[in-house]
Write a structure and sequence with these properties.
By secondary structure, this protein is α/β, with parallel strands linked by helices. The protein has 12 helices and 20 strands. Helix 2 packs parallel to helix 9 and helix 6 packs parallel to helix 7.
Length: 406
């Protein structure tokens, strides 16, 4: 199962360690639930993108998990940020990312967001008819136009983004008209953007989308400065999933980019997904109707992906990592919802209250989608490397929740 965990994960003395730090020590010193990121894994994923697409502009899909320390780490690797709101832009700016490495998205950008994008010099992606006029009025200079190529990716329907009914982007005819409007307004139209979806397990649909983009620009008789192919490469959450490597996914796209055109990629999940592990403390264990439940001190408030997307995770008893499994258990969250089940069935040694449960591949779209449901404060986050753990997000408290009450 360690292949689902970060690169630095090891079993030492019967216990899981991450970045050279024992999981039980992390849980004791920082509390649980705790989201742990491995710096080595993040840097290795960036390196894989660099090797697969030399010369490409990489911008991190901030929505996967917005965090200033992680964005600084990525900026140190020359990676920018793909943002879609004022909040995400604020994280990127706090991390010191400049406008040359910022791409601003959004299907319904406000005037305030467009002004903020203009002030930072970000590359703005036009996503709706007439948005060129709003962007020009806000002072935006540089734009891409998002094309909806009518490609249906093989992924959950909620994270398909390029099919004909998508809320994102413009049809080829509308995109051509918006390019004309943008040019007439004096905007620098620097290229075309396309993104087919998230948690992608094959490259075929992305290749098809790129081919349609290339046909579109050929029809316009235009050589853009950039082709932005978005992100979307998935990560393995369980041992049954088979996914392409970065090279296998990006290579067929990079080789089709015309000479003189720079590729932009927006990886998010594939950069931080495997790098993250969530640690929980086990509490009650009980049998109900032939199912044995082991309850954790978190759940759908820190990881709603099982409820939203039917995501299937695996787990390891971090403090008893070498013990053989003794049965199949259902991992239940602490929330007042029957559907608050993190893992429907997982083989474990007989769980005991106080054990530390480690759930791999939770670095993307978990805490980013989290909530304070049931008045449960959100967990802390640490970054591990070389035997040290750095807190990069403080644990929320009940006082924090009450702070907004008049």
């Amino acid at each position: 199962m360690l292949e689902l965990f970060p690169i630095s994960a090891k079993i030492d003395g019967g216990e899981l360690s991450l970045g050279g730090v024992p999981a039980s020590r992390l849980a004791d010193e920082h509390g649980t639930p705790l989201l742990v990121y491995c710096e080595e894994t993040i840097r290795a994923q960036v390196a894989a993108y660099r090797e697969a697409a030399p010369g490409a502009l990489l911008v991190y899909g901030t929505k996967a998990f917005a965090n200033v320390a992680l964005l600084r780490l990525l900026a140190d690797e020359g990676v920018g940020a793909d943002v879609s709101t004022l909040g995400e832009l604020a994280f990127a700016r706090a991390a010191g990312i400049d406008g040359e490495r910022l791409v601003f998205h959004g299907n319904n950008k406000s005037a305030e967001e467009l002004r903020a994008a203009a002030e930072t010099g970000a590359l703005v992606v036009l996503d709706a008819p007439g948005e060129a006029q709003a962007a020009a009025a806000a002072g935006v200079k540089r734009v891409l136009v998002r094309l909806t190529p009518g490609v249906e990716a093989v992924t959950h329907r909620s994270i398909q983004t390029a099919h004909e009914e998508s809320k994102f982007g413009l049809s080829p005819d509308s995109a051509a008209r918006e390019i004309g409007r943008a040019l007439a307004l004096g905007l620098e139209v620097e290229g075309v953007h396309v993104h087919v979806g998230s948690q992608l397990g094959r490259v075929a649909e992305s290749v098809l989308a790129l081919e349609r983009v290339l046909a579109f620009i050929e029809g316009l008789g235009w050589t853009p400065r950039f082709l932005d192919l978005g992100g979307g490469l998935g990560v393995r959450h369980n041992r049954e999933e088979e996914l392409p490597s970065v090279a296998e996914f990006v290579g067929p796209l990079a080789e089709r980019i015309p000479d003189g055109v720079q590729l932009i990629l927006e990886p998010g999940r594939s950069v931080v997904g495997r790098a993250g592990v969530t640690l929980y403390r086990l509490g009650s264990v009980k049998e109900s109707g032939g199912v044995t439940y082991a309850a954790i001190d978190g759940g759908m408030s820190d990881n709603p992906r099982p409820q939203l997307y039917g995501a299937r995770y695996e787990a390891l008893l971090a403090n008893r990592a070498e013990e053989p499994a003794s049965g199949v258990y259902r991992i239940a969250g602490k929330h007042c919802e029957s559907g608050d089940v993190l893992i429907d069935a997982v083989e474990l040694p007989a769980p005991r209250a106080g054990d530390v449960l480690a759930v791999p591949a939770t670095g993307a779209y978990t805490l980013a989608l989290g909530s304070t449901y049931n008045g449960v404060p959100r967990p802390a986050v640490v970054l591990v490397e070389g035997g040290e753990a750095q807190e990069i997000r403080k644990r929320e408290t009940v006082d924090d929740l009450l702070r907004f009450e008049p």
